[in-house]
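Supplementary Text 2. Reproducibility record for the structural model of the 531-residue chain.

All settings were left at their defaults, and a single model was retained for analysis rather than an ensemble. We include the record here because the model underlies the residue-level annotations in Supplementary Table 4.
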Amino acid sequence: MRPLFLKTLHYIRKNKVRSSLIGGAVCLSVGVPVYVYNAQINIEKVATALLRTGRAVGAVGKAAVFYKYQTWGLPEDQDISQIHESTAEAIRDMCSVNGGLFIKVGQHIGTLDYLLPKEYVRAFKVLHDRAPESSLDSVMKVLKSELGAPPDEIFSEFDPKPLGSASLAQVHRAVLRSSNKEVAVKVQHSTVQEHSKIDTIVIEFLAKAMDKVFPEFEFDWLIDTIKRNLPKELDFVQEGQNCEHVSRLFTDTPFLKVPKIHWEHTNRRVLCMEYINGGKVDDGDYMKRHGIDKSEVLGYLSKIFSQMIFVRGYIHCDPHPGNVLVQKCEGKTLLVLLDHGLYQSLTDDFRINYCKLWQALLKGDTDRIRKQADRLGVGKYYGLFACMVASRTWDDITGSGIADKNSNLDVNRLQEEAVRQIPQISQVLNYIPRQLILILKTNDLLRGIECTLLDRNTQGVGTFLNMARYCLSALTTHRLLKSASLRRTFYIYYTYTVCLFKLKLMKFLYWISLTRVGGYCDKFLPSRVAF
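Retained model, structure tokens:
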């Protein structure tokens, strides 16, 4: 063991990473023996694992001590935004350097817009655009290894600059030599597979340690989410299958485009697909240059994801702006959905209960909100859970309902509430079904896009009305399947028709309120129509 210890220590010193030694020492007694008895692992890999582990332990441990020291004796209402900011930036920088799964976790944190302090969301959001790139040489080695031939025999062109780089892979534009078709080639980072197992163990260890230091917080939901979803995201064959499945589900949706897969050049670490150009869905300048209506884009976006959640029960769980493109084709606006590595399938029971929850939220029906939240396993935290789902305060929800045209998204107030209730939020995330965590993530990503394109304090109602329509459709279909008589069937159709008319009227009133005419007669228009 001693020669291995000395060689590993020499490698660490040689690479000038003394800042990691303190954290690395914590794990040395565990990490080195594990690798000593595995002859397949070389010294460089042992040292790299120790460095990454040490860096993570050092950054998170330092943040924990900093929080304990800086907040000792402070009143509960004391502003600690500077503490949040400095610790968030330190942990984010560690995630950026470590890469791989650490960036994936950081990106997940950056999407929890209305669940975490704004300092954390702001700090981690940049990881969507700051993922490290693999070298071209590394990319070519992966391609040759996985496709069984030199890349220049498969591609007549291969752009050395990636179109984009993410936590697990990066994408290059290329041209197939056999057909002269332009394609996008997604190549997994060479070290992701070998780092993912130990990174998962380290992150789980850190979460357990933080549970001990801060017992009021619970992080089991985060660990469960990582363990459940990482193997799926590392398998590009499954991503290709997801892509084709969602394409079949939305064949009747003319404004949605999904890339076609080239299976002859696809396997677990390489995905070859149709190349589709476009601008990011939150790029307002791109839309302005190409004559694309922002409201139309947001309407399409809410229709697609409302169908996924309420009707199809099959949800794309990573719709950040880099994964949703917008383009103008033959005078028509199209959305392009990319990155199909992570989908959540919903059981029919869960989907219907979630529909009923949204129906209660849209009506502002407190009793039904409590009942449906209880069915979803939330229990006494039903009020906080409702606020997390709808991104509205409890006063807004229980007032006239979130579909009220005067209901605004007060982002600052929501984030202030989130800071005060982080322990309770973490408990809610532990209680709810794991499939609901990814839905919350999807909701927050979509609202983030909406906030970027529209005034942060006036958006939301149009999206809620679209959601209400598909929610109504799903519940009607469910009731029709259970109908036991012609009279009951007629009544269900009648109720559906009346509710649909009311929703269309609400949408019309909302549209009127946004026009110049609406500004003059707004006080004469009802704020909502009961349905």
